[in-house]
Write a structure and sequence with these properties.
single chain, 668 residues, Glycosyltransferase, nine-stranded antiparallel sheet, five-stranded antiparallel sheet, 29 strands, 33% helix, 27% strand, Glycoside hydrolase family 65 protein, hydrolase, 6hp_glycosidase-like_sf
Length: 668
Amino acid sequence: MYLKINLSILLLAISISTFGQFKSDEWHLTANSRENYFGVAMANGQIGIVTDDTPLKTKEIILNGVYEGSPENGISRIVRGIEFLNLHLSINGQEIKSSTISNWSQGISMKEGTSTTSFSFKDLANINYTILANRAVPYSAMAIIEITPNKDIEIIANNYMVIPDELKEAKSQFRVLKDNQYLMPVFGTSAKTLNGKYSISASTTFLFDETSETLKQTGNEVGFSKKLSKGKKYRFAIAGGICTSKDFTDPLNESERQPIYALQQGIDNLLNRHKDAWAELWKTGDIQIEGDLDAQQRVRFALYNLYSYIRPETRQSIAPMGLSSQGYNGHIFWDAELWMYPTLLALQPEMAKSCLDYRSDRLQKAKQKATIYGYKGAMYPWESDDTGEEATPTWALTGIFEQHITADVAIAFWNYYALTQDKSWLRSEFKVLKETADFWVSRVVKNEDGSYSILNVVGADEYAQHVDDNAFTNASAIEALKNTIKAANILNEPVDPKWIAISDNLVIHRENGITQNYKGYNGQIIKQADVNLLAYPLHVITDKNQIEKDLEYYAAKIDPKDGPAMASGVLSVLYSRLGNEKKAYEYFVKSYLPNSRPPFGVFSESANSNNPYFATGAGAMLQAIIYGFGGVEQTDRGLKYNKGLLPKKWKSLKIIGLGVDNKTIIIE
């Protein structure tokens, strides 16, 4: 009753204050207020361009997989790139500023991956400013500006670039290249990361629908002037790209090729290729909810963000905040494998595979970490960057002791094989399973009664440090070992008898019929779901009565103030599978609503934080849809489609593009 009442009040309050600004459109989110603004990343898996409420300006650009030591403590941090799409625009000698515009609105098109800001400038003109990170051309982006004059006017438009403080030795240049009759004006800025690890270059040019204008450099800006006639819409674009020495030997010249390519393609060609790439993603992986526009918008927005933060075949994974900020330094956590990966595995398997490629490429560093601490096999870092070494700040005990990450990685590898049944892939990646299994053999201790324990860890419940036999750590190790045994049998590889002995005898403690969070647990508040994860996504607890007991007990123990969003998503899945529609729906709503921030409903990590976009939470909410209401179940033989459960508020749930055969299921 307490949960229901509070959720109803919260839903009403947020609907009035924030989401009343939304238009009733399942593909578009629209804001008409700039108050308490939290932007959205226009991202293509390579670069993330975060929207701003300031006209003609972006907030920041995040570069996927590019890390440099931070000035605070030297710990690696994902790098902010040169902001290259910003525009200074004057009309009749008057500069457009935040204080001089009216009728501001901003819309996010999830279908097309664009953000469009609209406003009026005095009585002179109405302006639209659309930005996109091109899904089809991964290192490029574009801003499209449309001006509708209310009277005859003259405009001056100048592209300028913002260099973040963490970059140094910035140099700008403007040159007009020529190839036969083609003139190619290119404006660029190059810089180095703080410690000189990488070089970064961004380059742009202007694209025009009609006659190209002559571009001129004024200080550190490049642009043009033009007279416009009343009522005649005028469109131009800033197009270009950003490249780094992480991916290119010569990032400067490659970045210049981006605007040169754009010049020959034109605005509509580039825009259409971008739209087509997004259309293909939605065609192969979408969730449609009939009868609840709010839920539809939020679910699709969560999918949009997950899809935005990764690309197939890039061998990159997803950080908790994706490409929306430098939150958690852009490091890769268990968030990728446990919370975001299951949704990608179901709807976009090739994106999911990229997360695994990231781990496979860093196996040797995981083996090195095991050696550092006196263990065998591979011990994956709690926080990982481009190197694959431990990147957790030294003050955080999680970096050394939150070791379930090693099992989480191995389980994700097995689940990819289970989905695809690709034995060739399994053979090529078996080394990850074997090395992580060997780690657990060296990590456990044998008790006098023949059972095994894992001592001195931090579990999923990070409030409990230096505990023995944490439920999730032990259970994930059990599942990882059993999966490794199955893989070895499929491939006719040797099975270490210790894998069997440990997986059969690793301790899971119970007291008074309740699975214990860890040995000696005595009812303390927990940070997030831990024991409940043993029923889903793990398969260690399968007894319905035990699942119900653990649910009832631990749902009341999760920190209501600072607990992250993921726990509610898992509880929703479990209640769906138990057939409890009421509680499943309550926890589904709780998995996103308290964490939503204006004006678009971006996720924050907890109800008490403001650090969007929390892609981890989005992943958990989507699991509640797919693996809960949708009835989808991961098995060793691929996805199994159970009956599912439809919330009373919904008329139907349709999930498109499941598994390797792109299956569609409908629950009515």
